[in-house]
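User: Hey, my collaborator sent me this sequence without any context and asked if I could get a structure. I don't really work with proteins. Can you help?
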Amino acid sequence: MNALIACVRFIDRINYYLGKYVVSWILFVLMGIALFEVVTRRIIGTPHAWTQEILVYLFCAHFILALGYTLYYREHVVVDAFTSFLPERVQVALETLVYVFFVGAFVYVMIPTAFDFAARSWASGERAPTSFNSPVYPAKTVIPVGIILLGIQLLGLVSKNVLFLTRGETLEDKN
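Assistant: No problem. I've predicted the 3D structure and written it out in structure-token form, which is a compact way to encode the shape of the chain:
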């Protein structure tokens, strides 16, 4: 049981620190590049071809990498208007079933698809069909990484819920 608790805490730490120190800082980079483009385009009058493309890649990376971090905080959309009146154990059991059914199915379908998507991009050396002609495969590699992070966070969440249902213990980090 202690090994399971240590594993769950390790999973939580991965998504917590990745979210806090990587995903959140991507927003500042996004804002900096957007500000740079606005100033150079509107004030100086010299737009750049690379800024739009890099902004799209960074926003997608931010969104995909934040999936596990968001699940760590249980901030994905939840409709609990009906379940909030139920006992806590029933709420946790329903939450577990819903997450396994919906998020688990999403992860199950998306991991092989995302790996294939990224592998084909790497194999062909895919580049963007723009004047900047940036490589696309690093951006496509972020997709399976984000889905894996979501999947391992789902395992952590389900493990916490099972611990609560079987032993009555809550296992929440104090981050």
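In plain terms: The chain has one domain: 2-167. You can pass these tokens on to your collaborator as they are.
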